[in-house]
């Protein structure tokens, strides 16, 4: 679909105002809907000077830590292929480090307590060495593994090494071959190629610029090396929204964007967590996934609404001045307000075979309503108390999808005539009347009944 011209003008104004407010040389952004780039724009000049080269959506910028999401997908593909388990200790696959018993899942979710940065000079501004040099500098754990969230760039350098050793080639070769090429992301590289923006710092008290260094980060490259364009990063946003083109199983992607480790900040509500390589945001009950990125001279943001699939990407060539993930959220908000996603009409496409399961059930004296919604059986209201959706799992079998009963089995127990007697849900009995004495209630029902 094409975006309305008035909406495009409004979005452009938002970019232009943010570029001026943040005093950044250039800013490029895009919006994704239904797996396609819906809108893309750029403001400013790549060198930050009047009359300079205008930025455009095909200008390359460094994506920084969004690189970690690609490394994470490469790791999960190994898991899905049976090559590793997320509960494996890192040293089982890459021996000879001081990471001890940190698991692969803990590294992916920043829950391993591994130190944030290297022990050497500021790695983002100095050429990087090899893996042996990195781990030879006494990589340490700051916290007990599994205790808390502690963001670690070093941890993703380790995961990049794991991917490389598993495949016998450089980590980026794996990412290029298995992810970028199948997804058509031809403008994503490890170093600037063709049309690219230079990394710049803007003086905080004067309108002058300082070029930032550009180099190969070596063993630290998996933490933030990749360069990309709006078009390519928009394709990755569509991937995050579920359009994986067969590169990753849907269930695996869902696992990656679940909150695994909460990013707890004293005095602040819990709104941010990390999944397996992805950041996850909870904004007034609505879930978003993606990642932010920053390197000297560059800022980047990727954010996807997991309910609608709409996504936003932002790329900036400045060390500071703009909060790209927050700007991505604003762009998504404008899109939702000015060009809401079309509402699909309701159709009677339900399954009449489950009608004998819907209606009122009782867990003891507590009333619960069962509904058939699409392909799911829903008990109560998901997100409230123990409300949950259930997916069919064989004849008269169901499995919980969310809430308290996620992963738990539900079995329909029938009478001799085939009518439902009760529901056996994780050992609990749901009966048509409160404590139905005919429904095999554990502990029995008092002989005198209700009185």
Summarize the structure.
This protein is of the alpha+beta class and 451 residues long. The chain has helices spanning 5-22, 67-80, 104-108, 131-135, 153-167, 171-183, 230-240, 250-256, 324-338; strands at 26-33, 36-44, 61-62, 200-202, 209-211, 227-228, 261-262, 272-274, 279-283, 286-295, 298-305, 311-316, 359-363, 366-373, 376-379, 388-392, 397-400, 409-414, 420-425, 428-431.
What does this 3D model show about the protein?
This protein has 451 residues and is an alpha+beta fold. The protein folds into two domains: 334 residues, Beta-lactamase, CATH 3.40.710.10; 80 residues. It is built from nine helices and 20 strands. The radius of gyration is 26 Å and the shape is globular. It starts with a helix and ends in a 20-residue tail after the last strand.
């Amino acid at each position: 679909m094409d975006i309305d011209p008035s909406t495009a003008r409004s979005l452009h104004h938002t970019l232009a105002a943010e570029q001026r407010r943040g005093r950044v040389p250039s800013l490029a952004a895009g919006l994704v809907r239904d797996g396609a780039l819906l809108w893309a724009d750029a403001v400013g000049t790549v060198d930050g000077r009047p009359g300079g080269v205008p930025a455009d959506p095909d200008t390359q910028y460094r994506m920084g830590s969004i690189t970690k999401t690609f490394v994470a997908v490469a790791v999960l593909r190994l898991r899905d292929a049976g090559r590793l388990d997320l509960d494996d200790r890192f040293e089982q696959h890459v021996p000879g480090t001081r990471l001890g018993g940190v698991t692969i899942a803990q590294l992916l979710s920043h829950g391993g307590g591994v130190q944030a940065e290297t022990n050497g000079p500021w790695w983002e501004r100095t050429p990087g060495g090899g893996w042996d040099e990195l781990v030879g500098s006494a990589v340490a754990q700051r916290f007990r593994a599994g205790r808390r969230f502690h963001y670690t760039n070093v941890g993703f350098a380790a995961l990049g090494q794991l991917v490389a050793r598993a495949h016998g080639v450089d980590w980026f070769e794996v990412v290029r071959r298995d992810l970028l090429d199948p997804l058509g992301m031809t403008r994503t590289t490890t170093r600037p190629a063709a049309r690219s923006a230079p990394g710049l710092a803007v003086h905080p008290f004067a309108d002058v610029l300082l070029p930032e260094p550009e180099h190969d980060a070596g063993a630290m490259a998996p933490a933030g090396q990749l360069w990309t364009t709006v078009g390519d990063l928009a394709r990755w946003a569509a991937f995050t929204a579920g359009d994986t083109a067969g590169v990753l199983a849907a269930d695996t992607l869902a696992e990656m964007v679940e909150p695994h480790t909460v990013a707890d900040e004293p005095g602040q509500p819990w709104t941010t967590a990390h999944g397996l390589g992805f950041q996850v945001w909870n904004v007034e009950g609505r879930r978003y996934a993606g990642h932010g990125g920053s390197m000297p001279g560059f800022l980047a943001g990727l954010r996807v609404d997991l309910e609608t699939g709409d996504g936003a990407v932002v790329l900036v060539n400045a060390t500071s001045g703009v909060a790209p993930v927050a700007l991505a959220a604003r762009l998504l908000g404008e899109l939702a307000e000015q060009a809401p996603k079309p509402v699909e009409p309701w159709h009677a496409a339900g399954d009449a075979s489950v009608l004998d399961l819907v209606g009122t059930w009782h867990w003891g004296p507590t009333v619960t309503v069962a509904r058939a919604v699409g392909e799911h059986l829903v008990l109560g209201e998901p997100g409230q108390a123990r409300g949950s959706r259930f997916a069919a799992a064989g004849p008269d079998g169901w499995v919980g999808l969310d809430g308290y009963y996620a992963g738990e089995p539900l079995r329909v127990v029938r009478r001799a005539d085939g009518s439902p007697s009760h529901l056996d849900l994780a050992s609990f009995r749901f009966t048509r009347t409160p404590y139905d004495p005919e429904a095999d209630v554990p502990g029995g029902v008092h002989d005198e009944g209700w009185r």
